[in-house]
Write a structure and sequence with these properties.
This protein has helices spanning 21-27, 51-70, 82-92, 107-123, 145-154, 196-208, 214-217, 224-227, 232-237, 242-254, 258-287, 310-318, 324-336, 341-354, 359-369, 375-385, 399-406, 411-416, 436-441, 457-472, 477-488, and strands at 4-11, 33-40, 76-80, 93-101, 126-130. By secondary structure, it is α/β, with parallel strands linked by helices. It folds into 3 domains: 4-132, HUPs (Rossmann fold), CATH 3.40.50; 196-285, Serine Threonine Protein Phosphatase 5, Tetratricopeptide repeat (Alpha Horseshoe), CATH 1.25.40; 291-492, DNA Cyclobutane Dipyrimidine Photolyase, subunit A, domain 3, CATH 1.10.579. It has a 5-stranded parallel sheet with strand order 3-2-1-4-5, with helices on both faces. Strand 4 (93-101), helix 4 and strand 5 (126-130) form a beta-alpha-beta unit. The longest helix has 30 residues, at 258-287. The radius of gyration is 24 Å and the shape is globular. Bound molecules: flavin-adenine dinucleotide. The site of flavin-adenine dinucleotide has 28 residues, from helix 9, helix 11, helix 14 and helix 16.
Length: 507
């Protein structure tokens, strides 16, 4: 039987048709194009995957399908192992090429892509992967990296194709529903809405009014939800590209009236920097995939792995540590699937230094909770905030100070920890200091209605610092740090002598 020629556009974490190079490339030929998304059952078993991610993807796929239909060919959805599905398609069709974006993800996706590459090679099918952002494949070290990244970001967008030559008679396949049992790790709460139109909507509202106080509010829980861009899940699942966002920010900057320049410029520049950090962190995972499993600085491997206290872990994960601000942040994250940068850092700091939990274990809970789970940023940040990179300043957050600084009146705490609703403001950051009479009048007995602090911050931090000092003083520590810095560090970071508080997360 003579098989029809086709080309496949394989959608992964790039759920859009604008600025989508593989799709654009496919649209330049008259070969029938099969746009496919595969629900890889094996992936959804992994401890970093979650139903929350799927809900976001589900919205995005529905819209992607609509958009593709408009240009001639629906999105085909299949469920199972990618290799089996491609194998079946190769029985029916003569696949000439598979076009996709490069993905920097967990080792799981790296192995899968290699498997597909080999499979294509054996079948004589062209497997063409295109860069999707500023992350550079096969980079030896960071010298010159930011130049390449910035040039890429300045390139024109790949325009939205107007027509795809369709495939005759192919079943489109159903998009599994949001509560399909394929998606194992459940969540309770809400999920940020997915889909391309939502990405455009929130970017426009940010640029129109939400972003006016972006920097001022960036670390304020309860406020930053509205004033941060909230583009992170859209970037993770690719309903919009960084390049598109940068172009719109540039247009906004150019159109600012005299009076607005002062207010907007610093906020917009700050988003621009963060989009560059995004590539910077993902590049770390691209250059050294082992950072998903191993400490960047090898001297820290073995530091916390054997000390895993399940009681501490559960208290942290459920927001029952006895530290009101930590608990409020965790409960808010568990419900919303998002919390601001500083609060993420503080939650990791508390788990790492106060509870001495290993970053790999706490990382799974956070990965499942964040709708925006992006492996490159995630593992780099987990390692930085738990102090195992050897190239970053140790940042140990004091949960009481953070509480006073960012939630002085305890409004956020009371929203998420209702057990403390009647606790007077002066005790809200340290309710364990209330005398019995105040506990009674506040309807909150410590140890009964709300837990006692599971550790004493000042004591455990002293112990943590001495354990870390032993490592820092080991022979060869500095030499190893230099190797890490050379491979993974930002070459720009060293020049920025005076950094603001919020920039310290770079390097
Ligand atoms: C322990 C830890 C884990 C994290 N895990 C993730 C993750 O899995 N996915 C994720 O997208 N971000 C992660 N971050 C970074 C940051 O907290 C989020 O990107 C940000 O809060 C998302 O909200 P936003 O889109 O409103 O960000 P905005 O402040 O509006 O920033 C705009 C965009 O810039 C990028 N960005 C912002 N801050 C950072 C940063 N510090 N590093 C790299 N890129 C940044 C994001 O893509 C973000 O969408 C993590 C931070 C920490 C401390």
């Amino acid at each position: 039987m003579l098989k029809n020629n086709i080309q496949i556009v394989w959608f992964k974490r790039d759920l859009r048709i604008t600025d989508h190079r593989p799709l654009f490339q496919a649209s330049l030929t008259s070969i029938p194009t099969l746009p496919i998304y595969i629900v890889e059952t094996d992936y959804w078993e992994k401890p970093f995957s979650s139903k929350r991610h799927w809900c976001f993807i589900h919205d995005s796929l529905k819209e992607l399908r609509k958009d593709l239909k408009k240009i001639g060919q629906t999105l085909v959805v299949r469920i199972g192992s990618i290799k089996d599905i491609f194998e079946d398609l190769s029985v029916q069709y003569n696949i000439q090429s598979i076009l996709s974006h490069e993905e920097t993800g967990n080792k799981w996706s790296y192995d899968r892509d290699n498997e597909i590459k080999n499979w294509c090679h054996n079948k004589n099918i062209l497997f063409h992967e295109f860069p999707s952002n500023g992350v550079v494949r096969r980079l030896k070290n960071r010298t010159g990296w930011s130049k390449i990244r910035n040039l890429r970001m300045k390139e024109e967008l790949f325009s939205t194709p107007t027509y795809l030559t369709p495939i005759v008679k192919i079943k489109e396949g159903e998009i599994p529903c949001k509560d399909d049992p394929i998606f194992k790790n459940n969540y309770s709460g809400i999920v940020q809405k997915g889909g391309r139109s939502e990405a455009i909507k929130i970017l426009n509202s940010f640029l129109a009014y939400r972003g006016k106080n972006y920097i001022y509010n960036i670390s304020k829980p309860g406020v930053s939800e509205q004033t941060c861009t909230r583009l992170s899940p859209h970037l993770t699942w690719g309903t919009i590209s960084s390049k598109e966002i940068l172009k719109l920010i540039k247009t906004k900057k150019e159109s600012l009236l005299e009076n607005d320049i002062k207010i907007w410029n610093k906020n917009l520049s700050s988003v621009i920097s963060r989009l560059s950090w995004r590539c910077h962190f993902i590049q770390k995972l691209e250059s050294q995939p082992s950072i998903e499993f191993k400490c960047m600085h090898p001297f820290y491997d073995g530091l916390r792995e054997n000390n895993f206290d399940i009681g501490y872990y559960n208290a942290w994960k459920k927001g029952l540590t006895g530290y009101p601000f930590i608990d409020a942040c965790m409960r808010s994250l568990n419900y919303n699937g998002w919390i601001n940068f500083r609060m993420r850092a503080m939650l990791v700091s508390f788990a790492s230094y106060d509870l001495w939990l290993d970053w790999r274990k706490i990382g799974y809970h956070l990965a499942q909770s964040f709708t925006d789970y992006e492996p490159g940023i995630h593992y780099s940040q987990l390692q930085m905030q738990s102090g195992v990179t050897g190239i970053n300043t140790l940042r140990i957050y004091n949960p009481i100070k953070q509480s006073i600084d960012h939630d002085p009146k305890g409004k956020f705490i009371k929203k998420w920890v209702p057990e403390l609703n009647y606790v007077p403001d002066i005790w809200i950051h340290e309710p364990w200091k209330m005398d019995l009479y105040t506990q009674k009048t506040s309807n909150c007995f410590i140890g009964k209605n709300y837990p006692k602090p599971i550790v004493i911050h000042s004591d455990v931090i002293r112990q943590a610092k001495s354990k870390l000092a032993l490592i820092l003083n080991r022979d060869g520590y500095t030499q190893r740090s230099k190797i890490v810095l050379n491979k993974l560090g930002s070459k720009k970071g060293k020049k920025n002598k005076k950094k603001t508080d919020d920039q310290l997360e770079l390097i």
